Amino acid sequence: MLKLKYSDKNFECGTDEAGRGCLAGPVTAAAVILPQNFKNVILNDSKLLSEKKRILLKPIIEQESITYGVAHVYQEEIDDINILNASILAMHKSIEKLNPSTEFIIVDGNRFKPFKNIPFETIIKGDSKYLSIAAASVLAKTYRDEYMNKIHEEFPMYNWKKNKGYPTKEHRAAIKAFGVTKYHRKTFKLLPEE
């Protein structure tokens, strides 16, 4: 069972991102503050859930959380500031949207930069330990998937609807055949060295 809280603060948010390893599209982060009495038996790290379960959980998280925020940082900015900084920026932007604001931040992973003067803790595999980080991972993933499905219509030959911009064989074959789009991250190694 995932834990509800890390700190003793009432308004503790969990934050996580999706799309860090993708070749195209934004990196998306979410931040979620859950109420003290929140319970959910399905909720877990989004990578451990089927797409169907993530889609089922999204409205539950949105309705039952005290507040949540979701933010995209797009490929141009990723190329400008690098993917680690872009991931942290997306988390900061999502935390900024929280109302009421958070008193403590728990972050999935081991890298974060201070946000305002709010205390934080980075937690390795936090998305499979804490409900708020798991909730943030589900929102980040579902919002990013929706965005990738939308841009798929514009460039169907890359099949982003299926691969969501990740470096699958099919995605790389399409880059080879059709070149890169405005949605591709130009600083990423889009094709393996021949």
Automatic annotation (TrEMBL):
HAMAP family: RNase_HII_B (MF_00052_B). CDD domains: RNase_HII_bacteria_HII_like (cd07182). The keyword Transcription regulation does not apply. Transmembrane segments: none annotated. Keywords: Cytoplasm, Endonuclease, Hydrolase, Manganese, Metal-binding, Nuclease. This is Ribonuclease HII. SUPFAM superfamilies: Ribonuclease H-like. Belongs to the RNase HII family. It holds the Pfam family RNase_HII. Manganese or magnesium. Binds 1 divalent metal ion per monomer in the absence of substrate. May bind a second metal ion after substrate binding. It comes from Postechiella marina. It comes from the Bacteria. It is an enzyme of class 3 (hydrolase). A divalent metal cation binds at residues 16-17, 108. It catalyses: Endonucleolytic cleavage to 5'-phosphomonoester. NCBIfam families: PRK00015.1-3. Its cofactor is Mg(2+); Mn(2+). Endonuclease that specifically degrades the RNA of RNA-DNA hybrids. Residues 10-194 form the RNase H type-2 domain. Its EC number is 3.1.26.4. Signal peptide: none annotated. The gene is rnhB.
